[in-house]
Amino acid sequence: MTVNRIRLPGMKIKSLLMLSLLLPFVSGCSPDVIEISDIALVMALGIDYDQQTKLYTFSTYNVMPTALSTDKAGKLTGWTASVTGKSVIDTGRNLRGRLGKTLIFQHNKFVLIGEEAATHSFYEIMDFLMRNRQIRLTSYLVVTEGQASDKLKVRTQSGDLLSNDLFGKVRNEKEWGKSMTQSIQMVANWYTDPCRGFVTGRLGVTRQKNDTQQALALRGGAVFNKGKFKQWIQGDDVLVIQLLSERNRWKNLEFPRVVSYKGHDTSIYFKPSKQSIRSRFRHGKPSIEIALTISAALGEIGQPLPLNSPAVIASMEKAASKEIERLIQASLASFQHVIRADVLGFSQLLSQYHPTGWAAIKQNWDEVYPSMPVTVHVNVKIEKVGMIQYAKERQYAE
Questions:
Q1: Please, are residues 243 and 272 in contact by the beta-carbon 8 Å criterion?
Q2: What is the band of 35 on the pLDDT scale with cuts at 50, 70, 90?
Q3: Are 342 and 351 in contact (CB under 8 A)?
């Protein structure tokens, strides 16, 4: 009997051998695979602390995954979940056992910290946020009036997701300047500095006079000093901090202000165009010199004026300059003498440009800062008069 042998080319034999070696590693439906239906996207995280029970509360505002972008998914329904624990880390772990979904934090935009938690445990909370790899450091850190968990349950007036609604409010900050929200990364850069204070966002609930529905409002700011929440500040103080912050803060800032001119209120829109903050040391004592150049456009005028007159425009520019100087000086007096927190970072300016002088006063900064002289000079240039006002001026002149 003749046996016919099948001969395979050498390359095919090698391929079959390699395939047989890989077969043990090929699996079917593994139990470790996470299906998309098992995922919940965390859009906002709230952290609270109860001084009486000594318990922390973590609350998440979540949505289910969708093929749509989270920025455009206005029809999605957000839902919240909360859990308590004896420590920040313990509470974070307990959150996993509370939900039947795998929490994904990659889309998280906000970390809301309740007022009591910010006062009692801000260091522990920041340590947790910085160590947790799932937390985005670009997320905004905001302190809430009262409990953070309550704010996550407020329905938005726009009907959009709460996280998208809050993000829109952050974008609008540059158009009025009376709220100021910082990222977790920026807060982390500042909160361990014993000489420098800082301000981050303040979130509260508001209701219009004839409106039954509550709405979330970013207004004013939360002051931190020596790593702890100290107090709230109002919108005008936040506006001054915006004006005297780094360039990426004030370059896009536009804000309205009512200026009294010859006994009448005049609305003026201001836009900073140049800023200078210089530090000096004389005879071992520091001082700060602030100079601002601001362009302006006239809004509403409560009286007929000859706006084609250079003398009138110059007079209005002087009145506007004095108003902004008064605004800044009032806030500086509050920061130095009432709050007694270096929220503008003058200490960093002194340490950078005058290291020898700073080394001599660093240990006594808490006493030096309140008495340090700060001079302010503002130069407002009115660049736009407005067609309606100009027409009124011509009629007045005739």
A1: yes
A2: low
A3: no
